[in-house]
Amino acid sequence: MTDGLPPARRKVAIDLGCGYRKHAGAIGIDIARIPQVDVLADATRPLPIRDSSVDAVYASHLVEHLDDLMAFMGEVWRVCKP
User: Fold this and answer.
1) 17: burial class by Cβ within 10 Å (0-12, 13-18, 19+)?
2) How many domains does the chain have?
3) Is residue 1 part of a domain?
4) 18, 36 contact by CB (below 8 A)
5) 2 located within any domain
6) In a domain, 57, yes or no
7) 36 Cβ contact list (under 8 Å, min separation 6)
8) What single DSSP character describes residue 71?
9) Which domain holds residue 62?
């Protein structure tokens, strides 16, 4: 997704709860220790990602399983670039 682009123009995408079907080009984040996962993290806790550092967030088939959607959306807001 970012090959060949200068560092300032590379896009950072994360796939929260990626499971076995990580979005192409995204950093896979999941609670499960499987090959597709790049970062082990629980989406119901603060994400191990710097503020305002992400261009795109994928969360297919994750959101409907969360008890506190507003806390999750707050974390997504925190990590996304303005």
Assistant:
1) buried
2) 1
3) no
4) yes
5) no
6) yes
7) 18, 19, 20, 21, 22, 28, 30
8) H
9) 7-79
